[in-house]
Design a protein that fits this description.
3 domains, 594 residues, six-stranded antiparallel β-barrel, 15 helices, 21 strands, alpha/beta, Elongation Factor Tu (Ef-tu), domain 3
């Protein structure tokens, strides 16, 4: 039995024009026009058991210009001239069926048939709205073994809003919103529910330490200065030998200099020599079969510096001797091909080596020079395990807050590349489903995944290449992305265009709003007009993962992230406590809060 039982008095109006996904309604009664409110749902009967569902996009009332008459002239039919023209524009979003084969009360995003002209249009409200939202919740919940609840529908606060977790992560997602709109809370809420799954596999790139309060997750951080003398729990070092040749070039080579090509050639020659020597010393001759300059084999940075120093000072024996003078009888030499060409390059390299802020890369502990070091790092990044004491080891939050901003894109790109490459080279199994899927949550993505409009240097390009490849090919190998940003206009359009799910909280900037609209089908652009007026924690959810593209009040997490905006005026009125400025200055000097 259908949930819709309307009578003629409940109709808003009749279908006047029909396009592919939009229809226009003619409203003859001004009182009925009040039932049509932007954002509300309407129903149009297509057949007996099938109803088209639409969202009101626009409502208008235009005065009709009356004909000008000469004095004493009477217009034909003047008594029936309408004083105004009323209309409603509706975007079709799906089809409700009271019976679909053996199933009852189903909703589909597909529009199977367009309505006929003059069909009445009814608002979905009160009992009908409650029943319809209940069907949406039940359908979304039934489609997944473990449903993902994101909040409640704004149209009906009693109906829980569920989304398809498979489609959300497998087809990538973008979570966007201005500062203070509730992005971090939305991420925390999704992570909390993900942590309930015994084999969850998520890596969160936490740039500001916002998610350190998530006690249900495993916490790591890129090692800081305080970890040089004594490595603390959770510290991760990323030794320089993990860098690809292109990444090393972007960090070490000054491309604006005249000697940049010579520096790049010398770097490649030295790296190849040292990696071959390391493979021989390790007794792993099988590695030479597929060996490239990017093969991740550990070698010492001091050896690289020695090799480059030798090339920079190299003198070649000409085979001749001095016939006279103080050097009589001594062999004549000439400068080697790289002699004096690498001086600036070596200064840059040695400066970075001695900078304690980069210790996580250039001063890694001895255990990171072993062949098994990459195995251990892979277990930290991609490993999962059973939940113990409320902590799910598969939810891994990596704190990048102590990484210097100038090298941040390379470090973030390195982590993403390692995850993707290890997943790529894992055995797919006979049926292709042996890989354990993993999701990378890219918090503050605009800082290291810039758009083409932003000025991108060699460091940003390396990170972009890695994540754009994941966005385009990751689904095939079980690597998903969730891009989180407050400035979608500054994020790579290539990456955003691959996100089939958009969760957009309040966006005040018109440029950011325009970017989000471009990501959506033309029929849903009208839904995004509400972005600047959304409440804190309220979002428009559109994409493959949701049955109905609509406004949702996001659920509040139990573990709140440390991203709440500091109340300036209130804190100035009643300060909590005096700030220890001496300790702050010393932390700045030591470049560490510990």
């Amino acid at each position: 039995m259908t949930i819709f039982t309307f009578n003629e008095q409940q109709s808003i109006g009749e279908v006047r024009s029909v396009e592919t996904s939009r229809i226009t309604i003619r409203v003859t009664d001004g009182q009925r026009l009040q039932k049509a409110r932007v954002g509300r749902l309407v129903a149009i009967q297509a057949t007996g058991d099938e109803w088209l569902i639409g969202i009101v996009e626009r409502v208008w009332r235009h005065p009709v210009e009356l004909p000008t008459l000469e004095e004493g002239e009477v217009a034909a039919g003047a008594a029936v001239i309408e004083q105004e023209e009323n209309g409603v524009a509706i975007s079709l979003v799906g089809t409700y069926r009271a019976r679909d084969g053996q199933r009852h009360n189903t909703f589909s995003r597909a529009v199977f048939a367009l309505p006929e002209i003059n069909r009445p249009v009814y608002p979905i409200e009160e009992k009908s709205l409650e029943d319809f939202m209940g069907i949406l919740s039940a359908s979304s919940k039934a489609d997944a073994a473990t449903p993902l609840k994101v909040g409640t529908y704004t149209l009906d606060g009693k109906a829980s809003a569920y989304i398809d977790g498979d489609k959300l992560f497998q087809r990538h997602a973008a979570l966007l919103g201005s500062t203070g709109s509730g992005k971090s809370f939305a991420v925390a809420s999704i992570l909390e529910q993900t942590a309930q799954l015994p084999h969850a596999n998520v890596v969160v790139l936490d740039l500001h330490g916002e998610y350190s309060s998530m006690t249900f997750a495993s916490h790591y951080r890129i090692a800081g200065i305080g970890d040089i003398k004594a490595k603390k729990d959770g510290a991760i070092f990323l030794p320089f030998w993990l860098l690809t040749y292109d990444e090393m070039q972007s960090v070490f080579v000054d491309r604006s200099g005249n000697n940049a090509p010579n520096q790049a050639i010398a770097l490649m020659d030295s790296v190849i020599e040292l990696k071959r020597s390391a493979i021989d010393a390790l007794g792993k001759p099988q590695l030479l079969e597929g060996f490239t300059v990017d093969t991740p084999v550990p070698y010492r940075l001091a050896e690289l510096v020695s090799s480059l120093d030798f090339k920079n000072d190299e003198a070649i024996d000409t085979g001749e001797t001095y016939a006279s003078g103080p050097r009589k009888g001594q062999s004549k030499t000439e400068k080697g091909p790289m002699n004096g060409q690498l001086s600036r390059f070596l200064v840059r390299l040695k400066t970075k080596m001695n900078d304690r802020r980069y210790a996580f890369m250039y001063q890694a502990p001895v255990e990171y020079e072993t062949y098994e070091a990459l195995h251990d790092l892979a277990k930290k990044l991609l490993g999962t395990g059973s939940v113990k004491d409320g902590v799910n080891p598969g939810i891994k939050i990596i704190d990048f807050s102590e990484v210097p901003s100038d090298i941040l894109p390379v470090v973030v790109g390195l982590v993403g590349r390692l995850i993707y490459q290890i997943q790529f080279w894992s055995s797919p199994g006979e049926d292709g489903d042996a890989r354990h899927p993993i999701v990378i949550v890219c918090d503050e993505a605009h800082l290291y995944l810039p758009s083409g409009a932003a000025s991108t240097g060699p460091l940003e390009k390396r990170a972009l290449e890695n994540y754009e490849r994941i966005a385009k090919e990751g689904r095939k190998y079980g690597v998903g992305l969730m891009v989180v940003s407050q400035r979608p206009s500054d994020v790579s359009t290539t990456i955003l265009s691959q996100c089939s799910n958009i969760i957009s909280l309040r966006l005040a900037n018109k440029t950011d709003q325009a970017v989000v609209k471009q990501l959506l089908p033309e029929s849903l652009e009208g839904l995004m007009e509400v972005l600047p007026t959304l409440d804190v924690g309220e979002a428009v959810v559109v994409g493959d993962a949701t049955l109905l593209p609509t406004r949702i009040k996001m659920a509040m997490p139990k573990h709140k992230p440390r991203s709440a905006t500091i109340p300036f005026w209130t804190r100035w009125a009643t300060p909590k406590a005096d700030v220890d400025l001496v300790a702050a200055v010393e932390n700045m000097r030591r470049q560490s809060r510990t």
